[in-house]
Protein 1
Amino acid sequence: MDLIAALRSFVRVAQTGSFSAVATERGVTQPAISRQVSALEDYLGARLVHRSTQAVTLTEEGRELLLPAQRLIDDAEDLPFNVGARRGRPAGRVRIALPVPLGLYLSSHLAPFLASYEGISVDLVLRDGVSNLIEEGLDCEIRLGPLEDSTLVARTIGQTKAYLVASPGYLEQHQPPAHPRDLEQHDCIFYQRWGRENVWWFSTPPAPGDVAGQDLAISVSGRIHSNNAGAVYRAALAGQGIALLSHLLVAEDLAAGRLLHVMPDYPTRRFPIHVVYPSKRSLPPRTRALIDYISGLLEDDPDMAMDAASPVRR
């Protein structure tokens, strides 16, 4: 029996509650994963999981094994880099979930990191929503806005920058909004960012009827919405409506005139960018190295760096 492989399967079964889900991840059959866990039970002389047609749950012995098993897996992955010429260098795979715009940005900026850490590989899981780190086997996740899960360790590494944009064609056919409330008369294209997907936040300038510096929440509507920022971006380029999108997606299009900045006098609300990871597990060096690298990337970008002159809303 390959002990480390069996432990890996056991940990993922514990996290997902499913032999089939782990088999799909690994590209093998469900019985193959079940046999690995059974072999581990025989090796340890203890039942680790309760099997039923509805779910797989851990026994008391399985719960006791979970954290030591994860530590053994981490140690095994780091072992080649604790001896010889590669001694002391972080190694292994890092699974990180990110919002789509930031994930696309990071994918084109990973070369220096991978060159510095030859033993690390990176799995990018791109989604505009919140993940379950344990069930999905994620080492960490980048999240936007206020955090609700108190069981996670969080580190603030930057702040968001988004623009309200539309194509020239759309604005030629529709009266450009002069105030955020005018958006109620427009086709808005929206996706899940933080909070309610159809509520956009703005800061009010000093003008009659508004108090400078206050936040203004506007409920928008439209015929297109998505769970992916990339789809919203393409719909905005095609002239389907007004969208609120990260500067990472639209900066080049704004410069080229393919998109136009709508209502620049009403800056969109900025939110903190956090990296979160499980609090009950020590942070492996490889994960810390990637977090530090991403933090440095954001710090080097004036639109995402933490800046006292541009406070984020917590």
Note: The radius of gyration is 23 Å.
Protein 2
Amino acid sequence: MRQRRFLPNLSLLLAFDAVMRTGSVTGAAQDLGLTQSTVSRLLQSLEAQLGQELFIRHKKRLTPTEAAERYFRDISAALDLIQRASMSLIANPDGGSLDLAVLPTFATRWLAPRLPDFLSAHPGVSINLTTRFRRFSFDEEPFDAMIFYGQDDWPGAEHLKLFDERLTACAAPDLLARNPVTAPADLAGMVLLQLPTRPDAWQAWFRGQGAEPPAPLEGMMMDQFSMMIQAAISGLGIALLPDYLARVEIAEGRLAPVLRQGVPGSSAYWLAWPARKAGLKPLAAFRDWIAARMARDGMG
């Protein structure tokens, strides 16, 4: 049962949110299309209901208290959630929507080209994609699921393994023509392109080639595989890519493989979702579809 004492009217929360965002009653009034006196009354009503002073008032200036700063973070997130839910209902009243966090290069190179297949099979479902590199709390972010790289240890989540990562080193054909590589030792002195989110990738690749990795590993750092691919195409160094990405570039002649392809990596790609949303129909449809698609593509 919800206690109304702890559920302020939406107009009070919107006034508070606007003042915090704009930094003044004047800005909030303009943002909301209200008079300044109305915004001030709404703030006073909110403070009275909460029994807390949210602003220090000095010569017509408002300074948020520490309590107001904490309250704003939670209220802002709640208002965003209400807005997203309303937008989703209006845009797709029958089928529902899936808010999916996903790794950026996986989204652009693998998922997006295949999404028409899912949407044609589920015309009532819409998918909202947002890129995320790192883990987050499903209790604090408004996502229904996340496609991520790592282990099946996301707190409070259920997991579906999509595929084990396999690694392929590749480089621009011109670079390899000038610097032939016939053994792992030939990479000594060459630039090895790296991702900070894959600190052990090159070590796994060298061991998969039956060799010990050089120490220390030196090279350029990139924060996305898409950037690494372009750097390798430009001849800046040797890229170490998930095999599903490398195969496309190799097939189209932009990159050439270095030694054995598809070396086992140390982790896998997963779909994770909060246990409380396991029965969400759009999620269940997407979960079944991506598992079948992985199997069809020979990745699962």
Note: The two ends are 44 Å apart (CA to CA).
Protein 3
Amino acid sequence: MDRLPEQLDFNLLKVFEAIYTEQSISRAGEVLHVTPSAVSHALKRLRERMGEPLFERRGQQMVPTPSCQRMAPQLLATLAQLRQLLQSWGKFEPVSAEQHFQLGISEALESLLLPQVCDVLQQHAPHCRLTSRRFSRDQMERLLVHRQLDLIIDIQALTPSGIAHHPLMDDQLVVASNDQLEQLNLKQYQQAKHIEVSSRPSGRVLEEYALDKRGLSRQVAVRCQSYQSALALAAQSELLVTLPSSIALAHNCDDMQIWPLPFTTSHISIHLYWHQSRENDPALQWLIGQLNQVFAVETAQATDVSL
């Protein structure tokens, strides 16, 4: 054990972290972007260095041994501190940086945000890259911990203790219809047929929470994957689509009517999420600042939507 510090390398510790968190060789490989056989080989080396099996296979899971379970929290905390030290090493210079930022965001918000973010990067960080992709909310912590995503933008939600977040903007729900509708009251809203939007094949959508709070219901005729498709369909039919005002603003709705929601409801709060271990990462903090500026502009514009 006296030779352990000089024998262990950082990559083996990353493998340990991934297996411990994922409890799976294959998922650890996905996180580390290596093959499962490479993870197994690294685990074998780690076991030899530690003189301890560390994990036991139970079905498809890799379960920590009692000694591993006892020592892992301290080891992972030390690893997080080391990452923070490396992140704060040196100054982030946007003009010359070649950073690749990974942003988790829904398709609906992407159409609102991405053009402005790309414009900011082109002006201030021309050598940086941005990848925007969908994510599953139940995987938020795992994606941020393993840096598969740097940041996530989503509606306000309960988060694990290791996830930091703050509000970016408040939004409100509106209703889009074809340009033939002359008025929209609560009775008309409930009697009409609606389009709901979700990338998931089933499950509750955003406006249903507002309806449930008021004990209201509606008739859903179509469920589709994007607001762009929903608005195109509503423009050519008598169907209604309920959506955030900022998304209505981002799409061309000149040939449609945009109505206030015919019942009172609280605002929608959109938040920015990142892992607390990245608090001292200068590149990430710079990006957070840029997103704050973009959303400040979007919030101001959304309040000017003509209802």
Note: DSSP finds twelve helices and twelve strands in the chain.
Protein 4
Amino acid sequence: MYIPKLSQLRFFCAIVEGGTIAAAARKMNCVPSNITMRLQELEMDIGQDLFVRDRKKLLITPAGRLFYREAREIVSRAERLPSLWSKPKSRGILKVGALDVAFLTCLPKHVPQFIMDHPDVELNILQHSSFVLERMLSEEEIDLAITDGPVENTLLEGSFAFHQSLYLVMPQHIKKITPEIMRSSDIYLFNRDCFYRRCAELWMDQKGYQPRSVLTMESYDLILSCLDVGIGLACMPESVVAQFRTHGRKLNILRMDGIGPTDVYFVWRKHAKNNIIQAFLDYMRED
């Protein structure tokens, strides 16, 4: 399928708007024969007569009117492109992916001000698990990830965002966790692509704990509903624990120590940190 060149569309629009080959030539700063040749090439390439030749006049055809409507929009858009960055402010589309804990901490604290101060930046923020975020970043589906760290992928780099401890959450009647309690209990964790699930499984291996079963349950509210009636155990990051406590929930928790770093990092593709990403990071790091 033939795709017209932008230069052909500009010549065609100049003919329609000028009314004659001579007027179009003056507008495009070229000789009339060049305009005539470009028009003939365009009509031949698309297989349509765009004008009817009547002596020295060009009368636009119905097909020509339809073509002009589409071509004018394309030419206008192309002419507007240089003005996108005529102002000193940053303009662009920024795609950010983040863990759920970021939506409870730095994002609600700083994103509103960033949006107000950068009206020409289209900010899109998605929530995904750690491993999905790393894949999306590597495949250039997002520009920046707020995920667990430190970074191990050699194609990525990052910087510390905030601390995030993990807690074992238990029903209120459990005063102390023991191997016997573990063996008789299910533990509710998010799916296998969740970094915190991997941390929880590592913690249980280090402690020699073997739960009755590990069940996938991707809702903290649902998990707490089970704990409220005295069944199961769960792993939650401290920001989630803090949110529930802010809303008056009493939680019976035990810090899961000895599992290595569970901190959150800002991560981007190496050599791809532009001025918009840097501005976003500056806002996220404000106290």
Note: The longest strand covers residues 92-98.
